[in-house]
Design a protein that fits this description.
2 copies of one chain form a homodimer. The first copy, chain A, has 13 helices and 25 strands. Chain A is an alpha/beta fold.
């Protein structure tokens, strides 16, 4: 047995409370090494005649990637307490794996075993229930619709011209309200807006005033109307909180520039020495090395109070439904815990989404975020479907690895995107091959999690990295790819029609090495999805259990 | 290369901030598999000509156990941000291990790599600095000294009789004050008191009133005097907070018994159905299945406020230095975060010690505890020195495993005990062989962490499990093992004399398979400690580097 490949450690993705009553226990082992795994488990306080009383449960092989098999058991401990270990059998030997290592004999004292000491409800990761049913649509407000030309910046270009990093096109809230029909027709039910607060740039990630709407976008009254119009249509609203850094023209930062060490805001930032030097040798911390984005000192109580008041204000006064947190991984965990407590106190079902591009387990333990922007999904999906750089096997392995690295309920609300204002447009990444994009959409919209569509991607807009991925929304139907639009629309409608399509339990089932095939299961409903990413037709034999099934796409037998 | 045995995941013990500037990065690999490991690392925002700029650093093999080698690098990222991966070389192939898996070529984009996004000071695990220099002494107040017979319970037995689980002997604060000389002579500088608040039992783990001193122990004035007398002698005071459960006679619980569902305290506990049934089929949650210890609902805001006020009160009014948290692992993490914030706000260098017998990484990330009762150390040390159940190799492997499972600064303040009121006395576990116990003390007092001596162990008291491990302190010098006392005293004095002895970096260095040998290094000072656990004398060859050294025990060359 390959003992050194067997891994388990309580909490994180290996042992977690799925809900108030249920624990998921997982074990990772070298692929193919173990024939079966049995979980030994019991309450640490139940003893009879000096012996610890335990039960055993078979563990299920729930996934495999290139290196590992993942075994899982689901346990509801009656007294909310658990000690447990693993009897690993590779056909040649049987060893019990515990916190103190491997034993040939099953240790009889519960002190040897792993502990999930108590399932406390308040610690359970519990994202809002509506998120699983949401299809998001990301809007970059400066480029979606110009509904009120009176608000145009002085240097506004004509709608549709090629943007530079500094161009303005006059997009605004009125423009969004005018085009809500498009979103309803598409079928989405959540909008994620990149920042809308007063700022200098077109992207508004350099906030000047967190309590003010950017005047080019509208005013608070218009924003309120936008939220109301969306809520009337059952569309949730998520705003972008840029709390890692402010803009250069944020008043407290201007105060520090002006008054230096005697500024009452000097501890609001990370300043190495005075006077501030926004030149080559930065004397203060920033986002990246961007002098116009000074990093906020979120360890400072005044900064905390200010930002928490911002977080509360837009929920309390405008009833927004979620916060997307910019550069969330560079802000301290301590602040995010305060943030969660404050936000959930005023709106318990608000959604908290962190911008984290990498493995985000430390932020997804129930005390900080509900989800992160799942670029790990994006990377795997793009490398396979769009760039054709990976094999079916590599693609599946990478996704299983990502899924198994998180608890199940984390995956269920993962924010799965194909692209954003920070990446080249997905059709461009697909080398403008709409067929590849369609397969990507099929996969994204049937995968575990909550998908997000970047404005315009659904009608075949193209563009490379920023600024080209931020072109004005194309409203001329003649220039829209309506077939693509209807394809995406249909996929979204399938999510409503078939709960298994959106929320079913996901698992790959190999049918043919050239095909991506997977099942989604929910209650009695079982779906088989087969994707042919090649350019040739392939004949496949359906599993017999699907012989009498309905084709969900055509709705025929 | 055994890819499936290579493990790393950021945060926890594998990548953590050691201080405000320093990251420790660790990799686990199959024992003997890798010849060298190189860390690739860089700032995610430093790019030149479209290429990510990274550096490389050799990783050091810092420990091995039966299954794994542990590699470590120490990095101070100039901008507090890090992306990193591992070039693993087994002599036959060289592979780069990243968040996205293994690659033959070194990936050039930093998105592939592991992330430690930002070293935020507030998130750094930072226990009080005085703890490293502390030797604790655990006192069970009912059994240490009877200084004021007027406070004796009515059924007090004669000092020194064999205790039952319900006996009383009249131990009190006055008794502790009277015997402070003993503690000063021994050399300890911290006292951990098991509970002192008003309760029914002799052990006081069934609190009636968290704001009152148990009248058998004294009053608040006496307790204040005790704290002051200790502080005058540079002895810290740690109290026991029993927040997992109250006692049966805790007023709110009595109120629930009396008024059932209409009690205003009904949500202070976990009650399945009314009326309460303390019989065989408990209708409420308890510690273990103990009807007299109803579990407190620490998710309830009133309970939180009550207990947090308790935590603050004894610090504010009596200036205690630390809290030991009973059954800490069964209380929710959310509560412990509130607890830490409240305690550290009023006394930033208070010590927070959790009673957790198993792997406690989820509580030791900087947001909850400063340390846990390190029974993982206890088990390994006892099985080897006291029970002679394990080999030198097994013992070393188990300790390396424990050390590597935690960050270095967690180990530096681990609360290393040989026994407590919950276990048989250590001399009894040693089958009354004082030689074994001496070696245990030598090891405990020279190991990484902060040691604790259970009252009376230092003078050779014996006794099996509770109640026999709670016998009255033996004050008759004729019945004390004074040689043992002087041995322990000398070890403690060596900790003061040689900072390397107490705080040096620990590492095993095999000299002979029958001996336990290790080094402790601090600055220029390097100690070699060799323990012969056999009953025979062994000749060993000293490493030449120690040829001209001083014998710390005799202070001679």
């Amino acid at each position: 047995m390959l003992r050194s490949s067997i891994y388990h450690r309580p909490k994180n993705n290996f042992a977690y409370a799925y809900d108030e009553e249920t624990l998921h226990i997982r074990l990772q082992a070298q692929k193919g090494d173990l024939q079966d795994v049995t979980l030994i488990h019991g309450d640490p306080y139940i003893w009879e005649n000096g012996e610890w009383i335990y039960s055993t449960s078979s563990m299920k092989l729930v996934g495999s990637d290139d290196l590992f098999d993942y075994w899982q058991a689901i346990i509801c401990p009656p007294h909310a307490r658990l000690r447990y270990g693993f009897i690993c059998n590779d056909g040649k030997e049987s060893l019990t794996y515990t916190e103190r290592g491997f034993f040939e004999d099953v240790p009889t004292h519960c002190h040897y075993y792993f502990a999930f000491p108590f399932l406390n409800k308040i610690d359970v990761f519990s994202p809002p229930s509506w998120v699983k049913d949401t299809v998001w649509y990301q809007i970059f407000p400066e480029r979606f619709g110009n509904g009120n030309p009176k608000l145009n910046p002085t240097n506004t270009l004509s709608w549709g011209e090629t943007p530079t990093q500094s161009s303005f096109f006059g997009g605004d809230f009125e423009g969004v309200i005018n085009h809500l029909d498009h979103l309803i027709e598409l079928g989405i039910n959540g909008i994620y807006f990149t920042p809308i607060f007063k700022a200098m740039t077109n992207h508004k990630y350099d906030t000047i005033d967190y309590f003010e709407i950017d005047p080019h976008f509208g005013d608070k009254e218009t924003f309120k109307r936008l939220v109301d119009e969306c809520h009337k249509r059952d569309i949730k609203i998520m705003l972008d909180a840029v709390f890692n850094h402010s803009g250069y023209y944020f008043e407290p930062f201007q105060d520090v520039i002006k008054y230096g060490e005697s500024s009452k805001y000097k501890d609001w930032f990370h300043i190495a020495k005075f006077p501030l030097n926004p030149g080559n040798q930065l004397s203060y911390r920033t986002f990246s090395f961007e002098p116009t984005m000074p990093k906020l000192n979120t360890e400072n109580k005044d900064v905390q109070n200010y930002l928490l008041e911002v977080a509360e204000y837009w929920i309390r006064e405008f009833d927004i439904d979620g916060w997307r947190l910019d550069v969330a991984n560079e802000v301290d965990h301590h602040f995010w815990r305060l943030f969660r407590n404050r936000v959930k106190a005023i709106k318990p079902d608000a959604y908290i989404l962190g911008e984290i591009w990498h493995d985000a387990m430390p932020w997804l333990q129930g005390d900080q975020f509900d989800a992160v922007m799942n670029y790990r999904f994006t990377n795997a999906a793009i490398d396979f479907f769009a760039k054709k750089q990976t094999t079916v096997e590599q693609f599946q392995n990478e996704l299983v690895h990502v899924l198994q690295s998180y608890p199940q309920h984390v995956n269920e609300v993962a924010f799965n995107l194909l692209g954003s204002h920070d990446t080249a447009r997905i059709l461009t990444v697909c080398e403008e091959d709409t067929n590849r994009l369609k397969l990507l959409y099929l996969f994204q919209l049937s995968f575990t999690g909550t998908p997000c569509i970047y404005y315009g991607d659904e009608i075949g807009m193209t563009g490379g990295d920023d600024p080209l991925c931020r072109k004005c929304m194309e409203w001329d139907e003649n220039k829209q790819d309506l077939e693509l639009f209807h394809f995406v629309q249909k996929l979204i409608s399938l999510r409503q029609q078939s709960p298994a399509f959106s929320k079913g339990e996901f698992s790959f089932h190999a049918i043919n090495e050239s095909l991506v095939s997977y099942r989604k299961t929910l209650g009695d409903e079982e779906l088989l999805i087969i994707i042919n990413p090649t350019n040739r037709s392939l004949k496949v034999k359906f599993p017999t259990s699907f012989a009498d099934s309905i084709d969900l796409w055509t709705n025929k037998h």
